[in-house]
Description:
By secondary structure, this protein is an alpha+beta fold. The protein has helices at about 115-125, 205-220, 220-230, 235, 255-265, 265-270, 275-285, 385; strands at about 5, 20-30, 40, 50, 55-60, 65-70, 80-85, 90, 95, 135, 145-150, 155-160, 160-165, 170-185, 190-200, 240-245, 290-295, 300, 305-310, 315, 320-325, 340-345, 355-360, 365-370, 380-385. It folds into 4 domains: about 5-95, Immunoglobulins (Immunoglobulin-like, Sandwich), CATH 2.60.40; about 115-200, no CATH class; about 220-245 and about 290-385, no CATH class; about 255-285, no CATH class. The chain is about 20% helix and about 35% strand. Helix 5 packs antiparallel against helix 7 (about 275-285). The protein is globular. InterPro entries: CarboxyPept-like_regulatory (IPR008969). Keywords: Signal.
Amino acid sequence: xxxxxxxxxxxxxxxxxxxxxxxxxxxxxxxxxxxxxxxxxxxxxxxxxxxxxxxxxxxxxxxxxxxxxxxxxxxxxxxxxxxxxxxxxxxxxxxxxxxxxxxxxxxxxxxxxxxxxxxxxxxxxxxxxxxxxxxxxxxxxxxxxxxxxxxxxxxxxxxxxxxxxxxxxxxxxxxxxxxxxxxxxxxxxxxxxxxxxxxxxxxxxxxxxxxxxxxxxxxxxxxxxxxxxxxxxxxxxxxxxxxxxxxxxxxxxxxxxxxxxxxxxxxxxxxxxxxxxxxxxxxxxxxxxxxxxxxxxxxxxxxxxxxxxxxxxxxxxxxxxxxxxxxxxxxxxxxxxxxxxxxxxxxxxxxxxxxxxxxxxxxxxxxxxxxxxxxxxxxxxxxxxxxxxxxxxxxxxxxxxxxxx
Length: 405
């Protein structure tokens, strides 16, 4: 059932952050016996445990919100269970199915997999930021990679949890990559899987550096933005939101490409000497015009695009136009240009370091009390948020200034 929507008009209370526990039992699907030592965790959090000899588990200190409970064990298929936490919850019995044996390692399909393909996978999954340079994949042999040269499509998955040590943020990340796609024709990257964060141990100096880096990763992120929306303090936190309007001086790409082809056609005009260079230059200038524009005077506020739903701790983002979100952090000297500001979607380099363009693929993008989108396919992001990868990712249960190490 889809949640009903109402206008967002309140600030979260401290009571929303009470902590609860999730309990249950895990069994073998074949012999129905309890499974000890199975790993149970909440996807994309640091919150997890293992089953005891009786197959029971208790995940404690869970913040309210919507989660995926993941159960995994060597030799078994991982199990996923969606859970909404508002109080203590007992999960129905979970039965793990034995995993079909298959060969792991880098697979050669369509053509020989090159180091470039493997690097592309790592760059898209982990990222290219300065934090990414401090990440190390511990078990790369479990990565299965396939490249289709005809479609220019790179796909990958992992046969078990990929272990990544993020020495910049102080997390040991276990990531089961179910699906990874890099479409070079459509300039599209998507991946999906299960993630467990384990805080690394370190001395006082390392812990201080991790706290500092974690705050740097958090500030300006989508999680930071959504939490500030719920607290009704986006402006105080450094965010500004604007509506992007179509640039009516720029025709569609179809029209532009047709005109460029027309005036570039040597056969039509006989020779280069008679080619209408002025017209060709004109349409090249038109092609370079931005597709979208915004003005600093057209600022949006939370009430313009955020709604509550009939489901507790679940909220919705909806807006008929494209949104532009900019963030000014402590290190940024960026100030609004009072005359005219333009964002060129066809020229990504024109975006500022902390700028993000948000498109809604569906009518609503839902997110929970922790500031995490629960239907991420409903939203497309370009700019800062779109560039963030595993190296910059923080667990859902991260709390600025209070995260335990």
